[in-house]
Amino acid sequence: MSRAMLPASYTRYKIRNPKSYAAHQEAIKHLPGGNTRSSIFSTPFPLTFTSGHKATLTSLDGDTYTDFLGEYSAGLFGHSNERISNAVSAAMAGGWNFGGISVHESAFAERVCDRFKEAGMEMDGNDETRKTITKSKILVFSNAYHGATLTFPITLVADADGGDDDGGGSKVVSGGTASAAATNLPHDFVIAPSLAAILFEPMQGAGGCRTATKEFARFLRQVADEHSALLIADEVMTSRLAPAGLCVGLFGITPDIMTLGKWVGGGMSFGAFGGRREIMELYLPADPGERKGKGRLSHAGTFNNNILTMVAGFEALGIYTKERVGVLNRLGDRLRKGIWTLLADRRIISKHLSQGGEAGEAYGIVEVDTFDRERQGKEAKALPRMFVSGHGSLINVRFTGFEAKVWQALFYHHMLDEHIYLAMRGYMALTIETTEDDVDRLIRCVEGFLDRTTQDCETEI
């Protein structure tokens, strides 16, 4: 039934968006797939936008959408924040691309360090780890995403050569990288003496907004300490979920290295990492008259001190205060709980799960990855057909089962019919422009989707 509903959704979409379709046909002449990154493609073709204001986007076809995608968490400040706009305009008036140090980068860095000092402030961290402790292996986890060149879908790590296959073991994925099943690393897990670092996301963003449990995160900290390895926390997304990041704010642990990105740049291109002083001092430049110290590192990047990013990021950290973090997280909780209640009322999930769970649990659901194919199937059957995961202002509406992708597409197009924009995979990142009225309207739209499809989606675990 679900698969039969999809063509009708596509037809309505095509009729409503002829200009976006024409723009896509033109774009594919010059760009693979007609886009600059795969995540913004959607079937049968993506919308083309002409403008954005606060929490709304306007398409080439003249429709206005409430934006719940938030540029995959990079658009935390909406589309027209006045403070950021004024700062960028003023900076541009003074020129850009100096090829040298500007007055802006140190001021921005001071704010970053002050904000994340409790946290001990994607591949840069790995390279320096190797040279710091002269070991060769970096432990990563199934369904992890650390940028386009460091992604580990479970289908990749499960099929990798090497390692054991007992559901909790590790596997060598590529030269120098080993993987383990996320949230399923047993206490008798064998740690190789060559372990240099553990790289993990406090909440897997691209992996479905799956938050680690406190026990799992603290176990990783313990393993890193016991084996003189570095714990690297990828907080590119999750740094927005607590004043000093999720490791400190939720788990009570301090990583050795923390990566930042997305929202911290105020909507401009941005990425950074920081960590313990003895690690970061490896980047101190050598005097030309001195012999270069052993293990001395350098870092490069033409746009590392892009003036537009420096001033936008400086303003961003001034806008997104610790108090504002709490306000936005509570708004996300309102959305997630509202959807969960709808699912519980329709018996799509069990009633006893609707009371909420601890960190790492989607209101009572803990997902467990395994490399064992037979156990994978059993674990998958334990999940509801539809549920919502996430933490604070980052949320993911998800579907499971053989028709999961079809359901995900139906949900996406239903939301577009209601003029709500989110990721095709159901991912949402609230912005500071999102209102309670916006959230309540989305909940009503989910209710409308369930009214249309409950008979096919309904199941009880």
Automatic annotation (TrEMBL):
Keywords: Aminotransferase, Pyridoxal phosphate, Transferase
Record carries keyword Transferase: yes
InterPro entries: Aminotrans_3, PyrdxlP-dep_Trfase, PyrdxlP-dep_Trfase_major, PyrdxlP-dep_Trfase_small
Domain of life: Eukaryota
Family: Belongs to the class-III pyridoxal-phosphate-dependent aminotransferase family.
UniProt-listed SUPFAM superfamilies: PLP-dependent transferases
Cofactor(s) demanded: pyridoxal 5'-phosphate
Pfam families, per the entry: Aminotran_3 (PF00202)
Residues in coiled coil: none
GO molecular function, one term: transaminase activity
Gene3D superfamilies for the chain: Aspartate Aminotransferase, domain 1, Type I PLP-dependent aspartate aminotransferase-like (Major domain)
Protein name: Aminotransferase class-III
Keyword Kinase among record annotations: no
